[in-house]
Protein: Copper oxidase
Amino acid sequence: RYSAPMLTRRGFLASAAASATGAMFPISPALPGTAATREISLRAAPGRVRLVPLAETAAWLYNGTVPGQEIRLRQGERLRVAVDNALAEETTIHWHGVRVPNAMDGVPHLTQKPIGAGERFLYEFDAVDAGTFWYHPHQRSFEQVGRGLYGPLIVEEPEPIRVDRDFTWVLGDWRLTKSGAISEDFGNRHDIHHSGRVGNTVTINGRVPDGFTVRKGERIRLRLINAANARIFSLDFAGHEPIVIALDGQPVTPHAPDKGLVVLGPAMRVDLIIDMTGNPGSRASVTDRFYKGLEYQLIDLVYDGTPLRERAPDWPLALPANPLPEPDVGAASRNEVVFNGGMMGEMVAQDMGKSMGLGTPGSMMDNTNSMMGGMMRMMNSSTAWFINGVAADEASHDMKPMLTFEKDKSHIIAMTNATAWHHPIHLHGHSFRVISRNGKPTHHREWQDTVLISPREKVEIAFVADNPGNWMFHCHILEHQASGMMAVFRVA
Ligand code: C2O
Ligand code: CU
Structure:
């Protein structure tokens, strides 16, 4: 499964020690009897890939592919990754959703010195939770992720549930020109102030897919990872009835998604069980229905001529729990967080059409009243989004903690989205329970690391602050993050 060279422990340590520029930290030797250590290397470098059938695209890649290789290990194993930076700028890797020690979290200037061009850095941590995770840079993410730097990280349960196939779809979203090149308008003001860089080409595992071949009666565990800068998916599986078994890597009571639609904001993951119930020889289109009037057909499920079995198996669906500390909601501290900023008003559908290059019905200035606030802000400042009134400056190298959470205590963060836009809000270093939406308890009290908050919605999350350090808290629409929508939370 590993496409990158597997290094021997000796060879690896020797090469790491030989790197004069890489930031070094002591490596604790594996104790006898402890779980295995996986060693891989990832090299970030420019390269060319075939995203669309008829053209090659210059992109930024890990080990020459997009997504980067699927890193797969067993729960309890240790992962050691040597990252070589062959880009012309600094980078880092963040292990999204993995509860790593602070120094391994990959946030430049906060948890590590960025990896300079030509330098190497060694990440090492234990896979404490089983689940579906991913990795990506945390340095100028809006451009580095948008050019193709991301990959899946799968941690298998010691005894996975039974399925016929366990398959990962990494969803990518690109803004391509007619010749298949990546549009160079990264970080433009329009994207920043609206819904972010929503592209015009969706890829699955780095290709515009033709089809996904399945067999009648087959049970598939489909791990969806939204690696897009900004695109939100609401997937309709065309008459199939997917069952959600994990969100953001964390097991949840198996359930059918609301209205049958599987929703993923940027950075979010959903593990589905799908029983393939179609007839041999048939096709069914998986469609994204998030943007009204701009439905997008993602991929066809293509049924093979031969059924695997006549009816769906009745194997158990529930995953074993991960070792997460349970928050004591009654005793928890309460912290209010309000998100502000962006263009105001009801321009969402119009904006989406524009972002996707589909032409805009009517001129932007038709909507003068609702736009004035946003326009003023746009003209006055390069920051667009605020957390509790503060727009973080990504270029500043010493962000001060906005909130401090007492270590090993329970905390609630009550978040209010006072904007006209959706925001997938991500907390580093911890998973949290989503306990209420607009004052109503959630059905599943799901564990997440990224929660999608609708315009004007209030969401409460609860967690035990058991991982000490300074952690990022930010919107995962990467253009929003880059233009103010992030903060540092301290656990001490
Ligand atoms: Cu996936 Cu702070 O990032
Ligand atoms: Cu946002």
In short: The domain at 329-342+384-491 is CATH 2.60.40.420 (Immunoglobulin-like). Helices lie at 9-18, 141-144, 189-193, 348-355, 368-380, 478-482. The CA atoms of residues 80 and 124 lie 4 Å apart. Residues 94, 96, 136, 138, 267, 426, 428, 472, 474, 476 surround CU-O-CU linkage (ligand 1) (CB under 6 Å).
